[in-house]
Amino acid sequence: KRERYIDGSLYDLACENREVVERSLNNDMLRLVDNTKYRIMYASPVTDSETCIRSLKTRMSLTREEAATLAALRIKALEYENQNAEPCDWLISFDDIRALLATGAGFLPASNDEEGTAKKITSIISRMRTYGYLAPIEDDDMYVLTPLVPSGSDPKPRTRTHPPTAAPTPARTTGPWKT
């Protein structure tokens, strides 16, 4: 499954054994992304600029609907951040998600087919849970926004990226890209 992350005591253990974690990830052409603000880590495929070998591990892109949902969830997470709420208190209900997606700029158009809309929302919630953006709680219609929501969609995240420890790509010595 994609977009999994570690936090809590597992985060602390990974910090203590960073070299071993990085070496293991590098063997799979992955790099460690450490978001210190939310104290989470996740693996990301290396990019072409980080290595001269194409990564065999790729992350599928989010669909348009998934990206729109993530953007809506990020707005909700930012509201909680502005209230200085702890990430464990970032709650969102099925009805809140429906309101975000089916009204205003949401991607689900206004429709008289409430059952069809509910099925679409249930499907997108299931995918957001699979990707690690939402976590279920005891109440079936309530979810917790995980720290991956602001971390995974932040254009300038507060992270430390640890690229693979492979040999660097040689710099160009000719042409306009000379370094």
Q: SSE layout and pairings?
A:
Blueprint: H1 8-16, H2 18-27, E1 30-35, E2 40-45, H3 64-82, E3 91-93, H4 94-102, H5 114-131, E4 134-136, E5 142-145, H6 148-153, E6 159-162
Antiparallel strand pairs: 1-2, 1-6, 3-5, 4-5
Name a few traits of the molecule.
179 residues; 6 helices; single chain; 40% helix; 3-stranded antiparallel beta sheet; alpha+beta
Short characterization:
The chain is an alpha+beta fold. The protein has helices spanning 8-16, 18-27, 64-82, 94-102, 114-131, 148-153; strands at 30-35, 40-45, 91-93, 134-136, 142-145, 159-162.
Fold and architecture overview:
This protein is of the alpha+beta class. 40% of the residues lie in helices and 15% in strands. It contains 6 helices and 6 strands; from the N terminus they run ααββαβααββαβ. A 3-stranded antiparallel beta sheet has the order 2-1-6, covered by helices on one side. The longest helix is centred in the middle third of the chain and has 19 residues. The protein starts with 7 loop residues before the first helix and ends in a 17-residue tail after the last strand.
